[in-house]
Amino acid sequence: MASQLYTLAQSSLPRPDQQRLSEFETWLSDINEPQLDSARLLANVRDECHLVGAGNFGDPNELAAFLKACGQAHSKATSELQRRDGYSSTCSAFELKGLGVEQTSLPPGFLRYSTSKTVVTTLVERMLGKVARRDFDSGLMSIEDAFNRIAIYWSAARLTDAEMLARSNAVFATFEHNGTAPRDDARALADALALPVLLRVGAGEEILFEFLYQRDSVQGYRFPTVADAGRFHLFQPAPEVVPDPAIQNTLWGWTRPMGGQQSQPEIVHENAPLRVIDSAPRLVGRMTV
Question: Distance between CA 46 and CA 190 in Å, rounded?
Fold first, then answer.
């Protein structure tokens, strides 16, 4: 069943835009792509209830603009690639437009998890030099050795503005909370956070590592929305409940966990340079996908 916000947003569109939206949604629900649950993508769009931009909870204008843009981009596309790119571009245009999350409701520290060996390679070169990077690239330096040595020589001052927390404008982050998280088990943690690596079935061995940084070193805290998630169907829109300071689990989003793990809190914030992290990244471990 669609959220009330979606229903209001969809019904506010002029009839031609409603028709274009209907055609877009038909396509979205039937994308033929490995490891993609297209029906879930459509359900997420219809469940969205926090894409309000500068508006208050329940204001449908921003979501209406998003739905209109989705339909228009789809109607202009003449190929499957253009249709996929059109949706991705529309999502990018509406990143970081979820309902704002109050700074005071959040703990002082954020956690972000990555599987990017490119980031590790960059950190090896910045902290240990080009010879060390060559050893790492060739396999002479193991992942474990790389993280141990990065920790010894860690200095955030060696990082530049080019090294960022994420490739997109929106950064997904989590944090410590009253529940539990398997922070020393790479696969279990990936399941709990529903990380994108889970869709790389057959990729083989992957690594997972952790960044820790202060809440106040970044800005723009918001509920994650379908626009921030893009074509990642494992994302789960937050329930349609007015945030209430007395009910903590209404103050941010929650992951849709896999493998029986406990759901974890999640927010998005504006991208920032890697040098905001407090200390060297921590290797959580290896996993097979």
Answer: 26
Cβ within 8 Å of residue 26, ≥6 positions away: none
pTM beyond 0.85, yes or no: yes
CA 198 to CA 253: how far, in whole Å? 20
Residues in the chain: 289
CA distance 33 to 36: 6
pLDDT per residue as tens, the chain (289 positions): 899 999 999 999 999 999 999 999 999 999 988 889 999 999 999 999 999 999 999 999 999 999 999 999 999 999 999 999 999 999 999 999 999 999 999 999 999 999 999 999 999 999 999 999 999 999 999 999 999 999 999 999 999 988 999 999 999 999 999 888 999 999 999 999 999 999 987 778 999 999 999 999 999 999 999 999 999 999 999 999 999 999 999 999 999 999 889 999 999 999 999 999 989 999 999 998 8
**What's the per-residue H, E or C state across 117-128?**
HHHHHHHHHHHH
**Sole residue written with tokens 């937050």:** 238
Q: At what angle do helices 61-76 and 80-93 cross, to 10 degrees?
A: 160
Taking CA atoms, 105 is separated from 123, 214, 223, 245, 280, in Å, by: 32, 14, 13, 8, 27
- Round to whole Å and give the CA distance between 172 and 287: 21
Residue 146 class from Cβ within 10 Å (0-12 exposed, 13-18 middle, 19+ buried)? buried
